[in-house]
Amino acid sequence: MANPSKKLSWLLRHGAPSVNIAMDAAGWVAVSDVLAYLKIGLPDLVKVVADNNKSRLELRDGRIRACQGHSREGMPVTLEALEATWEPFVGKNRLVWHGTTAAATRGISKLGILPGERTHVHLAEELDSKVGKRANVEIMLGVSVEKVGALFRAGNGVVLARHVPADCIVELWATEAPRTKATLDLERELRSHFPAIAERQAETKLALDEMTKETQELGLYDY
């Protein structure tokens, strides 16, 4: 079969009901149904799951599912059932990240990050994470873990939220390298659309100014 991984991901995320394969509310389907549909053997299926570059698939006790990324429309999955199978996210960092485009960022500043046609917004725990980000992103948005509310971690490490309000976005970086004047100008322009980013930058500047003043008063600067 040509590209069984891609066909399997489509089946488990978007297409099972359309080909009369039963799926429960957490996205699980019977392995036997998948083997019959794909016309492959169990060893081939195990290899497809193991070789998936972002560990998007789970195989357990005669059942298989996509870890996350399900369509909302036309699928039997529910937010509650999916979240019950993920672990609550308690990260070591104060930010998680969402990759997007410069054009989409301006709309996000008004509506926040929406899941679109999927069940949840996908986020990454680290800026350089391989999971939770789309390829070829232009902008990384830093989301405050403290402010955003309920977050979950799927089995493959993707961090998920139902919605990210705009005021939870507190950092923004362009991904272009090397960093040019145009890159810095783009960051500055896009950051201006997010009050929480401007507020955080003002607080940081105030703290630095106070530290400088205290240092000067202590005579630690050598003029």
Percent strand equals 15-25%
Described by the principal axes of the CA atoms, the overall outline is: elongated
Low-confidence stretches: none
Q: How many helical elements? A: 8
Strand line-up across the major sheet: 4-8-9-6
Helix percent reads 25-40%
In the CATH hierarchy, the third-tier topology of the largest domain is known as ADP-ribosylation fold
* Count of separate structural domains: 2
Q: What's the CATH C level of the largest domain? A: Alpha Beta
Order of helices and strands: HEHHEEHEEHEEHEEEHH
**Average predicted local confidence, pLDDT:** 88
Q: Please name the CATH architecture of the largest domain.
A: Alpha-Beta Barrel
Alpha-carbon Rg, integer:
22 Å
Taking the sheet with the most strands, its summary is: 4 strands, antiparallel
End-to-end Cα distance: 74 Å
Structural class: alpha+beta
Number of strands: 10
Description:
This protein is of the alpha+beta class and 223 residues long. It has two domains: 4-84, RNA 2'-phosphotransferase, Tpt1/KptA family, N-terminal domain (Arc Repressor Mutant, subunit A); 87-199, ADP-ribosylation fold (Alpha-Beta Barrel). It has helices at residues 4-15, 31-38, 42-51, 79-85, 102-111, 145-148, 181-191, 195-217; strands at 29-30, 57-60, 63-66, 87-88, 95-100, 121-123, 139-144, 152-153, 159-161, 169-174. Strands 4-8-9-6 form a four-stranded antiparallel sheet, with helices on one face.
